[in-house]
TrEMBL record:
NCBIfam families (alphabetical): rmlA_long
Domain of life (superkingdom): Bacteria
CDD domains assigned to the protein according to its UniProt record, in alphabetical order: G1P_TT_long
Every Nucleotidyl transferase domain range: 2-235
One Pfam family recorded for the sequence: NTP_transferase
InterPro entries: G1P_thy_trans_l, NTP_transferase_dom, Nucleotide-diphossugar_trans
Protein name as it appears in the record: Glucose-1-phosphate thymidylyltransferase
Length: 355
């Protein structure tokens, strides 16, 4: 069994971070979102991975390499522009051959991995198996309609009037029968070959399409709010580990991970928090659900429920929360200006100023 991992896409909802970085490489608890997916594939016993790459191909290839660090063998498959998930299957035909495969969206996050799902698929081997979860607003997702017995009878891509609250999670399992389906469909109104249309083609052809509804934690990390929520979920499961330096005037409370070379000076850190190697926190407070990457400086500031990427500094700015701060960023106080009122008043005006 092989895997097809989608790592293209512009990541427009995470801009400006993704103007200079692939969205799949934005870190959660100081590890790229994509790496969690690759680790879950390896844990499920899959070793051959085809990775669909686009404009950020060079950055993805530098980060992942040949895949050996994850126990994988990675083959890169370029996609000139994002033309839909089914298009990714189409261009990966040579790599996939006649093997069954998992298609995994590289910016998706599933707590607990996919080992159970892969084992279930291998045991029963339907033509396709999809993963579903209930969402508050299904209009932004592919949506499944089930009959009374729980059988999939229809799929829609981002419907205006959803027929259910069951959204497709970014993990799909297929036998080679899907290759005929992706060749049979036409581009949608978005100009893309939709995987929902390909699966609907299988349903209409009376293929064996099954679903698993998950109750656990899943996120499409496509926007800042979801990134912060995934960061919170991962930090919740971390164990305390202090490998850096904490001076006598500081305290680290609860589940704090302090990497080697990091220093805490005259500060208070309340977990769950992870602080990367070489980072210095001084005269500051770092509160729960915060990830600070390597080689950062936090001075005379307060930081909570946030993600700070590598080589950034936050200096003397009071309190920051619910924020995503990119690489090589400097956050400093604005220069003070004299307090004054500037007025342009017409004839016979009356003005009251509270000083």
């Amino acid at each position: 069994m092989k895997a097809l991992v989608l790592s293209g896409g512009a990541g427009t909802r995470l801009r400006p971070i993704t103007h200079t970085s692939a969205k799949q490489l934005v870190p959660v608890a100081n590890k790229a979102v994509l790496f969690y997916g690759l680790e879950s594939l390896a844990e499920a016993g899959i070793t051959e991975v085809g990775m669909i790459v686009g404009d950020t191909a060079a950055e993805i290839e530098e980060a992942v390499g040949d895949g050996s660090r994850f126990g994988l063998k990675v083959t890169y498959i370029p996609q000139e522009r994002p033309l839909g998930l089914a298009h990714a299957v189409l261009i990966a035909r040579e790599f996939l051959g006649d093997d069954d495969f998992v298609m995994y969206l590289g910016d998706n996050f599933i707590v607990g991995g996919i080992t159970g799902l892969v084992e279930e698929f291998r045991a029963h081997r339907p033509d396709a198996q999809i993963l579903l979860t209930r969402v508050a607003d299904p209009r932004s997702f592919g949506v499944a309609e089930l009959d009374a017995s729980g059988q999939v009878i229809g799929l829609e891509e981002k419907p205006r009037h959803p027929k259910s609250d069951l959204a497709l999670v970014g993990v799909y399992l297929f036998t080679p029968v899907v290759h005929e389906a992706v060749r049979a469909i036409e581009p949608s109104w978005r100009g893309e070959l939709e995987i929902t249309h390909a699966i609907q083609h299988l349903i209409d052809a009376r293929a064996d399409v099954r679903c698993t509804v998950i109750e656990g934690y899943w996120k499409d990390t496509g926007n800042v709010g979801d990134m912060l929520e995934v960061n919170r979920a991962v930090l919740e499961g971390m164990e305390r580990r202090i490998d850096g330096e904490v001076d006598s005037a500081s305290e680290c409370i609860g589940r704090v991970v302090l990497e080697p070379g990091a220093r805490i000076e005259r500060s208070r850190v309340v977990g769950p928090v992870v602080i990367g190697a070489g980072t210095v926190v001084s005269d500051s407070y770092v509160g729960p659900f915060t990830s600070i990457a390597e080689n950062c400086r936090i001075t005379d500031s307060e930081l909570e429920f946030s993600i700070v990427l590598r080589d950034s500094s936050i200096l003397g700015v009071g309190r920051i929360e619910a924020s995503l701060i990119g690489r090589h960023v400097e956050v400093t106080p604005a220069p003070s200006v004299p307090s004054a009122h500037r007025l342009v008043l017409g004839d016979h005006s009356k003005v009251q100023i509270h000083s």
